[in-house]
Amino acid sequence: MMKNPKKSNRRFSKSIIFSLVFLVLGFIMAYSFSLSQAEKNKSGYTGGAFFEQEERFRGQLIEQQERNKDLRAELEEKQAAVQKYEQSFSDGPDRFSDYADEAESLRRYVGALPVEGDGLKVTLQDGEYDGNSENPNDYIVHESHVFQVINELYISGAQAISVNGQRIDGNSYIVCTGPVITVDGVQYPAPFTIEAIGKSDVLESSMKLSGGVMDQLLNDNIIVTLDMGQKISMPAMLSES
């Protein structure tokens, strides 16, 4: 049998049309996909970037929470200090005398007031030089030795201290220059007399502690003399007398 040429032409035409339709659809889909990828790359908002940004925000949040915690603790500490200060006022007039005594004690400490009382006198002298020693400085009183005595006396409760009659305060400086020491710009030769007003028995006991200041001074060949139970007077720092 012979095939009908008209039917064959129709099938061929349909095939061409379908092929063109699918080709156009495929082109449109590919173009749309490429556009969406370009938009994502353009904005830089990829999946990896999103999670990275999320982690950064989370870290900043944790850091801020820790900072808030520290500030809260600091606030509580300040509130406790204010409450304690207010409580001191609520104690009434009975505390005023204590405040006055404390203020006077501080004035004596900084040398703003003349002072007088029992205390301890510590005298430091250069040791006798041994001709066999290579260094004569090993037998001389240095500023470090004077500072050792002053610090020990303050720790033991001394209210006021002087060196060779000159009051010492928190800003005083002592420098050793050969056989003399300079106290706040004034030079003094040996021996050096350090006087302290306070409980003389306590001051002496602290100096004589085993392995304490006096033992260290003797090991450095310094001659140390302690004289307790004396009445000691010291002028104010600004006094001209």
Automatic annotation (TrEMBL):
It comes from Planococcus koreensis. It comes from the Bacteria. Belongs to the UPF0749 family. The keyword NADP does not apply. This is Uncharacterized protein YlxW (UPF0749 family). The keyword Heme does not apply. Residues 54-88 form a coiled coil. GO terms for molecular function: RNA binding. InterPro entries: DUF881. Keywords: Coiled coil, RNA-binding.
